[in-house]
Structures are given as C-alpha cells and as structure tokens.
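User: VWA domain-containing protein. Structure?
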Amino acid sequence: MKKNNVPTGFVFTKHTPKEQSPFERLFDIFQELITHTSGDFDEAIDWLRQLDEEYNLTSEEYTIDDFIEDLKKKGYIREEFKPDGKGGKKGNGKSTITEKLERSLRRRALDQIFGKLKRSGSGNHKTKYTGRGDEQGGEFRNYQFGDALDRISMTESLRNAQINHGVNDFHLTENDLVVEETTYKAQMSTVLMIDISHSMILYGEDRITPAKKVAMALSELITTRYPKDTLDILVFGNDAWPIKIKDLPYLNVGPYHTNTVAGLQLAMDMLRRKRNTNKQIFMITDGKPSCLNLPNGEYYKNSVGLDPHIVNKCYMMAAQARKLHIPITTFMIASDPYLQQFVDNFTEANQGKAFYTGLKGLGEMIFTDYENNRKKKLR
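Assistant: Predicted structure:
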C-alpha cells in the first residue's frame, strides 16, 4: 500500500508584524497627547503638528488635516458651536472629544486584580471558597444529600461504578456519585480616590498624567470585567468631592493642598451606604498630605515636610478603615524615600497594599503586601 509522505507537525514562518494604517499610527500618538493635555483637543493637535515637523509622521498623501477629518468621521471628536443669538451658529466651532474617545482612552489602561474577597452577593470576583457557587473549579468530591443534580459529574460517577461493581454487574449507586466543586463569586464596592493637589506637578514632574492613566485603567477594569460591582470616584485637594468616570480624561490639578483625611472620610461615607460585604479603597497620590479641615470650617495647612498632626490623622483614618474591614490600596506616583516611608506606615496601619509606580506609569513597581508580610518585584 502506497503511503502519503505528507509532512505533519507545526510549520513555523517568519513573523510579519501587522502594518498600521497612517490613521492608526497617528491615533496612538494622539491618545497619549490628549491624556497629557487633559482633553484639550486644540493643544493636543498643536503638539502633534510639532512632532510631525520633527519626526515626519505624515506624508503628502495623508496629512494632519486628513487625520482630523478621520477623527470626525469615526466619531472620536465633534465640533461644538456657540449660538449667535439669532437662532444660528457662531464662528468655526470648537472640536471636543466624544464618549467614544473617552472609552478608547480607558481601554489603553492597565489591568489590576482585586485582593482577597469574602462571600457576599453573587458577582464576578473569584474567591478562595468552594461549594455551591457559579463556576466549575475542576475539583471533585463525593455526592452529599442536597447537592444539585446538574453538579453531578457523570463521567467520574460512571467510572466509579465500573471500578466498584465491574462491567458485568454494572449498576450505579449513590455512593458512586461524584460532584464537581464550583467557585463562588462575590461582589465588590470600590471607591477610587485621586489626588489633584498642586504637588502632583511640582518640581518639574508630571505626576497627574500617570495618575489619570491608572485611574482610567482601574475604572475600565471594574466597569467592563466586573459589571455587577459598584465604583465611585472622588478627587481630593483642599476638600474632596465625587466625580464621574467620564470626567477622568479631563482631570487636572488645581492650586490645592492635599487633604487626604477628607478624601478618606468621603470614601468611607460612600462605602457605608453599600450593601456588599466586600469593600475597598484605591488611592492614587504622591503620598504627601498637607491639609486638614478644622472644626470651625477653616483649613490647617502645612506643605513643608510631613506635618506630624496631619500624618497622625491619616494613620487614624487608615486604622478606622481597617476596623470597618475596608482595605486601602495606595498607588504612589512619586519616588521620594520619605514619602514612601509615610505610605509604608499608612499601609501597615490599614493592613492594605501599596504600589510604587514612579513617573513612568507602571513599567516596574514594588508591590508591598502587608497581609502576607512579604515583598516582591513585578515586571
């Protein structure tokens, strides 16, 4: 009999990278610029034109003006006109970014996973608990009275029956039945705190842009991967106030001090209203509290070093959150050793976690896990 000598196995070929269109190349750069300019389209395009002059990003066939037209056609920007008072439109209009671009900016974000969870309402977070849950876990146990019939593994049960009774006298008893374990899922209520104090742009360091990127990433993670969870966002400067997810790309710093205590108070007030068992706070900051609200309504401010009175109030809030079983995860957008020491002490008081992200986003961070009393580098 003639054999077919057809080669089998894997065939490896040289990797050919996907070629980007002129729009896609410019769009990557534009999204970075629009984040830096806090949603200011005109300023971002000015920067893009300067980069084009220096690095020849465009050609005669595809110019910056063509790119702007494509942004309009694809629904990433729109023109807004001011009324002229006569029922018409005034001027050439101003280009602003749309919700579609806001979502695109958030999708560029980083993905962070939540910590340990306790049982609560049915949600989307895996926990360490097994039993009557939502997702198959790959582990088996003997059937117990009350187990749902759809959880019985017929393959494993028939295998047990053959082993226990043989093929000739095959029969299936309750003792042969095997149930596959399932993993219970939980819901999470999260408050995301963002520092917008003036120190986030001091000393020639742009700390607010990395903070915005982390905030957009975390919000995208929570709202898309865990839709049953709740997410509240607040910003804190001299005071603290809530904002919406769609406001994140437009965030900018103000002439504010850093009232971390006010932010934590508002965050815990928000979480007290939630019915979920699992609650947590994510705080994005440069790690330097410098302001407090006094009982008479005035502000106590000290931007020189770490004021002991302000710092101790922060530690008290961290301990209070710990008593309420609210872990705080701090994303520190700074590399000053004395600020890291504050975050270390703050995290220890709460038994939470800290990520030291530096100014390069999240290329490398030191993840401090006080719950497990260990440190490791994530690359």
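Residues 125 and 185 are 5 Å apart (CA to CA). The chain has a mean pLDDT of 79.
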